Amino acid sequence: MNAETISRPSGIELKFRGFASVYRRREEQGLCARRSQFAMNLQSYLCSSLLAAYALCFSLAQAETLGGRVVKIADGDTVTILDESNRQHKVRLVGIDAPERKQPFGTVSRQHLADLVFGKTVVVKWQKRDRYQRILGKVLVDGQDVNLEQIKAGLAWHYKQYGKAQQLADRSRYGEA
């Protein structure tokens, strides 16, 4: 039998007698298996990434809106809204914290919030409730972000505890204000 020489990419030459074709076949199968494994890993990664992106978009799209008239101001960060079905909803302004009524500037903060929203029709964008079942939301009057206005007036501060209930853009705006 004649010896057959196979050159490897590493520069090593292998000499075989009669089994060269078997070796080549097995080598090709191994290469195909590695390529196939890489393709499967890549496909799995891409599918996972797309699924994560879809879940993120879906969760952001799940924000609910509530419309109604503000009928009560509890303090500088909590209001009560009466919807068109005459149901009351307690809303905690997400992303801010204001002094309580009996704390310094508590009444000033409450009065400023009342000046902004009391008796007016508002829209609340929200995604979840807190442990007291209050809606955690961003209150808008004629497109104006009331939560942010409380911070800008110096009568509330950015409150990070409810940060996950807040959109990323709002979080950064409130942090900068």
Our measurement of the CA-to-CA distance between the termini, rounded to an integer number of angstroms, reads 86 Å
Rg from alpha-carbon coordinates: 32 Å
The level-1 CATH class of the largest domain: Mainly Beta
Helix segment tally: 4
Structural description of this entry:
The protein is α+β, with helices and mostly antiparallel strands. The chain folds into 2 domains: 3-61; 64-176, OB fold (Dihydrolipoamide Acetyltransferase, E2P) (Beta Barrel), CATH 2.40.50. It is built from 4 helices and 10 strands; from the N terminus they run ββαββββαβββαβα. It has helices at residues 20-61, 106-117, 146-152, 168-176, and strands spanning 3-7, 13-17, 64-75, 78-82, 88-93, 96-97, 121-129, 135-141, 144-145, 157-158. The strands form 3 sheets. It has a 5-stranded mixed β-barrel. It has a two-stranded antiparallel sheet with strand order 1-2. The radius of gyration is 32 Å and the shape is elongated. The termini are far apart. The mean pLDDT is 80.
